[in-house]
Amino acid sequence: MRSQQKFLTTQEVLEYLHVNLRTIYRLIKADKIPADPRGVVPLRRPDRPSQTRGSSRPRVLILDDDASICDLVAKTLAFAEYDVDIAPDGGSALEHMRLYPYNLLIAELKLPDIDGLTVIREAKRYKADLPIIIITGFSTESSAIEAVNLGVASYLTKPFRVTQLLAAAATALGE
């Protein structure tokens, strides 16, 4: 049985993503969110991040112990047509990377178990050319230097704007 696709207005997308109208129009213009001339966006509102296997969409792993950040980033990337998985700690992130191929890792540095830089070093062992974006509220000069030495694609400090995140993801993936 095929499910009916729900159509959202631009205003509903705006309220759902908690971004400004300019960002929505940029996403539409960049063809990240398809829309018809009436401003109707033919997207299904995801109840949770997409777990589609075998998709040609970029697959992203979000590593952060803050559920609200994970939710915001996952919703933003899902609307921008990325397949998203979430890991709340370093151990589960490493397990995800061992089991599934990812096109991008978005990682917090300060985690309850394994620190983010250790996870990034391990991720590079699984896939040396894996693009990585750091999102952190605990930025230090030494962590920024180590991130650069590890070849991190982008380093965003919290709070960040979803437009910054989308731009960093697109750049990291060569879009």
What does this structure look like?
- There is one protein chain.
- The chain has helices spanning 10-17, 21-29, 67-79, 90-99, 116-126, 141-149, 162-172, and strands at residues 8-9, 40-41, 59-63, 83-87, 104-107, 132-136, 154-157.
- It has 7 helices and 7 strands.
- The protein is globular.
- Helices cover 41% and strands 15% of the residues.
- The strands form 2 sheets. Strands 4-3-5-6-7 form a 5-stranded parallel β-sheet, with helices on both faces.
- The chain starts with 7 loop residues before the first strand and ends with a helix.
- The model is unreliable at 1-6 and 36-53 (pLDDT under 50).
- The protein has 175 residues and is of the alpha/beta class.
- Helix 4 (90-99) runs parallel beside helix 5.
Low-confidence stretches: 1-6, 36-53
The geometry reads as: globular
Secondary-structure content class? alpha/beta
Q: Using only CA atoms, what is the Rg?
A: 16 Å
Structure summary:
The chain has helices at residues 10-17, 21-29, 67-79, 90-99, 116-126, 141-149, 162-172, and strands at 8-9, 40-41, 59-63, 83-87, 104-107, 132-136, 154-157.
Any chance you could write out the topology, listing elements then pairs?
Layout: E1 8-9, H1 10-17, H2 21-29, E2 40-41, E3 59-63, H3 67-79, E4 83-87, H4 90-99, E5 104-107, H5 116-126, E6 132-136, H6 141-149, E7 154-157, H7 162-172
Parallel strand pairs: 3-4, 3-5, 5-6, 6-7
Antiparallel strand pairs: 1-2
